[in-house]
């Protein structure tokens, strides 16, 4: 087998599970879930481009999520050719996961999503659409440190960034360049309700009770297009899969096992 691209982490044996993380994160966010499932499943845990060990984006002018999917699909063809798989995604990674499922629904065994921020689905000029675009605009700063503070505080809580270890803050600031590209990916898709409705495999849609209304409303909108969806709300926020990993990642593991009748 040809050597895999950097940032693609494979572990275990059995039915395959594709894992996709949020912006300003990495494949490491899913390690509790990997440890829980790798004894009976083949885990394919991706660092999205520009994060973790993955390569940087080479052509930023022409970036969109199709660039992510070319890399993901090439890896799947190499690791599990012609096999079906489960997909897990959070936030931006949830939006990439949704696109992956939309483009090849017949190979999806299940889809576990935590607040996938597929902003392109929002009605143009709606309140949520305006909030998403104004938020992205507010991050267009020369000072990446301030941009990272605004970004992380929005998705967590006020002063979250300032409470992070000093060594972590500049690392997140440097990754804000990819966050801007992520927003381009999140707003440039063209699929809609018709394409999402073709996903007939079981879907677990998770939200946080303390999350921004924007991401919760978007999750609810996506659910309205699905025919086989189970909705779960947790007493946490948008970053719940990281801040409450023991609870939420355990729920994902149980869901995937139920799909297999375990």
Please describe what this structure looks like:
The protein is an alpha/beta fold and 262 residues long. A seven-stranded mixed sheet has the order 1-3-2-4-5-6-7, sandwiched between helices. The mean pLDDT is 97. The relative contact order is 0.15. The protein contains twelve helices and seven strands. The longest helix is centred in the first third of the chain and has 15 residues, at 65-79. The radius of gyration is 17 Å and the shape is globular. The protein has one domain (8-122, 190-259): 3-Layer(aba) Sandwich (Rossmann fold), CATH 3.40.50.
Question: Strand sequence of the main sheet, in spatial order?
Answer: 1-3-2-4-5-6-7
Supply Rg. 17 Å
Query: How would you describe the shape?
Result: globular
Indicate the structural class: alpha/beta
Q: Into which percent range does the helicity of residues fall?
A: 40-55%
Descriptive key words:
262 residues; Rossmann fold; alpha/beta; single chain; 12 helices
Task: Break the fold down into its secondary structure elements and pairings.
Elements: E1 8-11, E2 16-20, H1 31-37, E3 42-46, H2 65-79, E4 85-90, H3 92-103, E5 108-114, H4 127-138, H5 144-155, H6 160-163, H7 169-174, H8 176-188, H9 193-196, E6 203-208, H10 213-223, E7 229-234, H11 240-243, H12 245-259
Parallel strand pairs: 2-3, 2-4, 4-5, 5-6, 6-7
Antiparallel strand pairs: 1-3
Helix pairs in contact: 1-12
